[in-house]
Amino acid sequence: MTGRVVVAGALTRRASQGGHTWFLLQYILGFIRLGCDVVVIDRAGPDDGLGVSRTADLLDGLGLAGRWSVLVDGTDRAVGLSRRALSAELDGADLLVNVMGFLDDPDLLDRCSRRAFLDVDPGFPQLWDELGLADLLSGHDVHLTVGAGIGGPDCTIPERGRRWVATLPPVVLDQWQAQSGRPDRVTTVASWRGPFGPVERGGVRHGLRVHEFRRFLSVAGRTSWPLELALDIDPWDAADRRRLEDGGWHLVDPVVVAGDSEAYRSYVQGSAAEFTVAKEMYVQNRSGWFSDRSACYLASGRPVVAQDTGTCLVPTGEGLVRFADPDDAVAALEEVGAHYDRHSRAARALAESYLDSDLVLSRLLDICGSTTAPSAGAVA
Prior knowledge:
Blueprint: E1 4-8, H1 18-33, E2 37-44, H2 49-61, E3 68-72, E4 78-80, H3 83-91, E5 95-99, H4 106-110, E6 115-119, H5 124-130, E7 142-145, E8 164-166, E9 186-191, E10 199-201, E11 204-206, H6 209-213, E12 227-232, H7 238-246, E13 250-252, H8 254-258, H9 261-269, E14 273-276, H10 280-284, H11 292-299, E15 304-307, E16 320-323, H12 326-338, H13 340-355, H14 357-368
Parallel strand pairs: 1-2, 1-5, 2-3, 5-6, 6-7, 7-8, 9-12, 9-14, 12-13, 14-15, 15-16
Antiparallel strand pairs: 3-4, 10-11
Helix pairs in contact: 1-9, 11-13
């Protein structure tokens, strides 16, 4: 299918988060590469003028002038395509890719012939649905997830009566060239807590990155690599910040070093590798979560040392090395350091073989264009 694809997701309200911008750009640019006519839907509050301006500049600069709309919450207004013009575009659309159910307007949703829910926070929408906290899943024909474990024997995330199709985060490879050299630091870009709170289910907390990362505070003091976190951490987490810094972690402001798409790409590519700890939700439920940020590191020829979250659709051991506990983490970092060139080459090879947007999005379109539901455990 190379028709009209609508991508609904947040750019305006995350205008200072270069990583999130790139997450959506991989889909937008990737679909364009495949010959699709792409329309982008965003939402904003009445006072988000600066963010809307940045979104307009970004999308117009990509050649998408007249192909985007920012809906203003609580009103019938829209910036870019008017609501009427957007409705006409949706009437002719072949597919809506709805990131975490971002577009929730029933009139607009009903106009799309095929609607795909894209789960990038596996466990949260499923538990919210089970507990009656939010219904984001209804009204979609296909349910995609970056949680490759969902539906498998080891994963405890409820399927909620849906068939979840595993997909990997795409990378537009010509936008993410392999880098040479060996920079002197290992980094990541992350939120300590993020926009969602923990979910309590059956007396068990399904938590955030903070709840996992506290287990790994000692790692920075035990490895030969300097470890740097571009960390969004709130002032009331001052005690955690002190523990991180006292433990040898170097903290920088993500808005300063990775606050837009260009800065984010430079930050990732200026790193030797990534060290990433997952959210407690992903780990304890064996979700199989795979990070779009890690995909950017791999495409840049920068190895990734990542926490094991269960089923992984990308081979591990070279280029991508996983760990389960602090001892594993230290050993993985030292392994990458000892054989850096080999891991660097393997990282790029993994991106080319598994994460290339042409490959990932072609499969996604094939599945979403099908008139029959995909089988459980299918891979996009």
